Amino acid sequence: MSSQALEQFLTVNIEDLKTKGLYNVIDTLQGANGPVIQIDGKSLINLSSNNYLGLATDQRLIDASVKAAQTYGAGAGAVRTINGTMDLHIELEDKLAHFKKTEAVIVYQSGFNCNMAAISAVMDQHDAILSDELNHASIIDGCRLSRAKVIRYKHSDMDDLRQKAKEATESGQYHKIMIITDGVFSMDGDIAKLPEIAKIAEEFDLITYVDDAHGSGVLGAGAGTVKYFGLSDRIDFQIGTLSKAIGVVGGYVAGKKQLIEWLKLRSRPFLFSTSLPPAAIAACSTSVDILISDTELIEKLWANSKELKHGLSQLGYDVGQSETPITPCIIGDEVTTQQFSRRLYEEGIYAKAIVFPTVPKGTGRIRNMPTAVHTKEMLDQVISVYEKVGKEMKLI
Ligand SMILES: *Cc1c(COP(=O)(O)O)cnc(C)c1O
């Protein structure tokens, strides 16, 4: 017999999500996550993935995966510290360090896991973390896990950050203080003010931690936001994901040799969770090779996003203040935004509505994620559907 208390908890809370309109129904893809996807037998132009460069379906990555699986097997067989470290893992870490222009890199099973691993490996209850209020969920959880005092500062507000850094330092209460931020904020596509953050960190001798999940493969010729600002030797922790632009799965921390050495000795997801399988590692390696040798995909990504942003603003839509390919189209109230997204779906466009509480009330938006592998015809089609639906709903 199952617990009555559990059953009641689940029933009440699931019902509550349904009444608030927060119950998420997950669509199932029938096939690959490319620029066109199949759902319920219907073909849709896909503007919802993080597969920025289209590498998730790139033949070179697929071939590398198959070859690695045949040579090394389907699984890594153990955690990295026992005997789950293969030459493939080391090769990928060396390649990433070279690409990021840092001394060393440690690879984890996901970007999420990096934040579970790295923050609590260096921060504890005697420390404080200054955290941007819009930081990603995995940063928030990673901070909590460390038991450090979390001090939130207003989004990208450098006066607020400096004030709070000053107070925390002068209080004399903390052994160490860290500033932690997303490199690119995924809802609005704005870039963290890293040059100012680095300056404040230097003024008060703070640790700097940048989670660059949406910047890697996109900014700084693919090497990320820190490289884009030329700050590679002034940021202590650079987190990257292998699951977005890189197109596979996994995450990594790039930094000084001694820091990476410490993470290999002490970070728990590295010590207690099995390492990524050979096929994934080999595909990631090939992906990094592609980024190093050729900027064509990145250029195509930026050209496509420019075209999409331009097309939508020409129609009279508010595309926000994005500085990256992330292209929000701000519709306004929650119900209209959901309805808009549904109409796009019916017209063959897959672009998700993002509403309160993920973004502030009244700023409901469609979040469009163009990629390098969308064709001109696909983008033209998207813009013509936005025109049709917008006029029909009297939004433009
Ligand atoms: C997506 C994302 C992650 C999670 O990365 P995964 O590799 O998908 O686990 C972590 N941090 C930020 C800022 C992200 O945007």
TrEMBL record:
EC top class named in words: transferase
Superkingdom to which the source organism belongs: Bacteria
PROSITE patterns (alphabetical): AA_TRANSFER_CLASS_2
Keyword Transferase: yes
Keyword annotations from UniProtKB, A to Z: Acyltransferase, Pyridoxal phosphate, Transferase
Pfam families associated with the record: Aminotran_1_2 (PF00155)
Requisite cofactors: pyridoxal 5'-phosphate
GO molecular function, one term: glycine C-acetyltransferase activity
Keyword presence, Acyltransferase: yes
EC number: 2.3.1.29
Residues in Aminotransferase class I/classII large domain copies: 43-384
Gene3D superfamilies: Aspartate Aminotransferase, domain 1, Type I PLP-dependent aspartate aminotransferase-like (Major domain)
InterPro entries: Aminotrans_II_pyridoxalP_BS (IPR001917), Aminotransferase_I/II_large (IPR004839), AON_synthase_class-II (IPR050087), AONS_Archaea/Firmicutes (IPR010962), PyrdxlP-dep_Trfase (IPR015424), PyrdxlP-dep_Trfase_major (IPR015421), PyrdxlP-dep_Trfase_small (IPR015422)
CDD domains from the UniProt entry: KBL_like
Family: Belongs to the class-II pyridoxal-phosphate-dependent aminotransferase family.
Subunit structure: Homodimer.
Protein name: Glycine C-acetyltransferase
Organism field: Paenibacillus nuruki
